[in-house]
Amino acid sequence: MPMTGRRLTSLLAYVTTAATGASLLTGCGVLPGATGGSREPVTVMTWAPDQTRATNMPGMPAMAQAYARWINSQGGIDGHELRVLTCNEHNTSTGAAACARRAVREKAVAVVGSYSQNGRAFMAPLEAAGIPYIGGYGISEDEFTSPLSYPVNGGLASLIAGHGMQLAESCRTVSLVRPDTLAGDKLPELLNSGLRKASHRNAVDIPAVEDAAEYTAQAGRAREKAGEENGCVTAVLGERTQTFFDSFRRLPATEAEAGDGDGKGEGDSDGTGEGDSGAKPGAVRISSVLGSVGQPVIDRTGGARSPFEGAFVTGWYPEAADKSWAPMRKVIQEHAFADNRVDPADAGVQTTWIAYTVLKEVVEALDADRVTATQIAHALDRGERIDTGGLTPALRWKYEDLLGAPGFPRIVNREVTFQVVRQGQLVAQRPGFVDVGETVLSAP
Fold first, then answer.
1. Which pLDDT value is given to residue 257?
2. Could you give the C-alpha distances from 180 to 188, 221, 375, 377, 402, in angstroms and in order?
3. Which of 206, 237, 433, 436 has its CA 20 to 30 A from that of 315?
């Protein structure tokens, strides 16, 4: 794919002299020593799957490109032109490894704000080259074990553990529908660790194929096991979560539902503003986590009449309407207004924004004419403290900041948000963040 930097010729005049400006357009690597006080470009990569049968995240590389257009229009990061390479990792281990090898070949100093489930495939080439992985989506275990990974959220582990805490307040029985994969096998115990915070019984575990075309059998079992007395069905299937809940909505009505004369798909939020409103007494409640369900999915499936109306959702960050997102929204409006891949309410787009915020602060702190991968990693390891403007707690990756949970030792952001779908909008169920660090630590 063409580099963002090649489209930025007109923005480089005040960063470099005319002579070096011509050179900036000729290669993907770092320039040899520039003169006249100019600073060398900073090349990074952002990857994500696109046009696959499973979860796709095209908004993440698109957000990275918009960020580069914006920051370069401001003179770059501390005088460095930001060059963003993008790569489609295709949701395969070979694709992820190919993207990582390209990052090495193109002399990227970091991989920033990316999505991949194939941690083992991409971390090995990055580690061999000393390239830090900043702000991955949090979907692979390697993001929380590699010494060169710097996660900006608590990953799926914190979401699921926090979701158990959220559901324990309102659900008598919980059915969990999750991918029948190695990563999916870890989810039941994480959810149960949250449920146990309220002395709750364990969830019913229902594995499912991640890229199925329909989930009628799993939906029927999930509803049956949840029961009709304050039961909850939660699905964590990435992009296929919508497919699951469509199958769930199409199940024949139970006797209790038939008696109510109300279908699941017709938004049942009472609009009272109560945190757990949105379901009739005794009705099965649905739920999920951000990334599997988000505002874009709710909008696509009918807004206030969406099957997700009244659903519980656990997220990493503040709700999309929070004022803390205003700087990101402004950048999107000015530099990605015509790109429908960049949705400010999408968790992947939000993660990429936060990851590039980390990169910007680290490069500025280095205050060097030439920035290397080793310098960035050392600055983060030494404890460079990152302020994300209220989108996360302050981020720092010194040893004492790491959670140290088995399987997820590099979690530093242990906070989540509890949200609920009300009148077609994801809104806060309770204000502020919820610390799930002890809950993640208590999972087997």
1. 57
2. 11, 16, 40, 35, 29
3. 206
CA separation, residue 389 to residues 250, 273, 327 (Å):
43, 27, 9
Q: Rounded to whole angstroms, what are the CA distances from 396 to 88, 372, 423? A: 29, 20, 37
Alpha-carbon distance of 288 to 242, in angstroms, equals: 10
User: What proportions of the chain, in percent to the nearest 5, are helix, strand and coil?
Assistant: 40, 15, 45
CB atoms within 10 A of CB 130: 14
Distance of alpha carbon 139 from alpha carbon 175, whole angstroms: 21
Give the integer Cα–Cα distance in Å for 305 and 369: 54
| Among candidate residues 42, 77, 150, the one with its CA nearest the CA of residue 377 | 150
pLDDT digit string (tens) for 218-248? 999 999 999 988 899 999 998 889 999 999 9
Q: Give the residues of the chain that fall short of pLDDT 50.
A: 1-36, 261-279, 281
Alpha-carbon gap, residue 435 to 121, rounded angstroms: 31
pTM across the whole model: 0.83
Mapping DSSP onto H, E and C, the string for the chain reads CCCHHHHCHHHCCCCCCHHHHHHHCCCCCCCCCCCCCCCCCEEEEEEECCCCCCCCCCHHHHHHHHHHHHHHHCCCECCECEEEEEEECCCCHHHHHHHHHHHHHCCCCEEECCCCCCHHHHHHHHHHHCCCEECCCCCCHHHHCCCCEECCCCHHHHHHHHHHHHHHCCCCEEEEEEECCHHHHCHHHHHHHHHHHHCCCCCEEEEECCCCCCCHHHHHHHHHHHCCCCEEEEECCHHHHHHHHHHHHCCCCCHHHHHHCCCCCCCCCCCCCCCCCCCCCCCCEEEEEECCECHHHHHHCCHHHCCCCCCEEEECCCCCCCHHHHHHHHHHHHHCCCCCCCCCCCHHHHHHHHHHHHHHHHHHHHCCCCCCHHHHHHHHHCCCCECCCCCCCCECCCHHHCCCECCECCCCCCEEEEEEEECCEEEECCCCCEECHHHHHHCC
User: What are the tokens at 307?
Assistant: 């099957």
Asked if 325 contacts 266 with a C-beta cutoff of 8 angstroms, the reply is: no
CA 304 vs. chain centroid, Å, equals 24
Joined tokens for residue 226: 């949840």
Using alpha carbons, select from 251, 194, 189, 180 the residue that is nearest to residue 222: 251
